[in-house]
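Same chain as my last thread, 219 residues:
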Amino acid sequence: MRTSTLIASCVFLSFGTIFVLPLLMRGAVSSSNDSVLLKQHKEQSAPVFSELQHAKQQSITVPDTASAGWHTIVDVVDGDTIDVMVGDTVQSVRLIGINTPEIANLYRFEDECFGPEAKERLEYMLQEHDSVFLVSDASQGDVDIYDRLLRYVYVYQEEEWVNVNFSLVYDGYAYEYTHYQNPYPYQLRPHFRLAEYYARHWVRGLWGACYCPQTILCS
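reply #2:
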């Protein structure tokens, strides 16, 4: 009996040495590799994050233009369009540099992926504000082909300016958009593209919820 027990123990130890120990070692190596990759990722991300913080700071530096001014909010149309009062007239405003998925309307029967969420996000950002500060971009003209004002939209909260356009891209509710008919890029495009890179990299908002937020990105 004692001999049989000894043989069984030897077999078990041999099995552990041959099969189990390599698996444990592989797991240890894998864990070590994951730690190294995570460290490398953080080191590689640090310069990008630093640039992103700079871009965010640049985006909230409100340009001094003759057309800039406060306007009362009337309605949020969708994720990238709002209505405001200009004098005694309700005027639509198209946010410069961004595009959001469409929502159902008279010309579209269904919502696009993350369209309702983008609108809700814009409503949330503006809900505590009666008015917004609109700033034009000399490179983009005053209005688009639908006679909507082309503007950066700013709100002032917690003692600092917030560029609503940039924030929507940064948080993954919109993607950077340069209008194909305009040969001149808008002034903040490098900063918006960096914000989109960040949102895509970290799979924020629509980048995690939608298979293809923008057709051109998937072609």
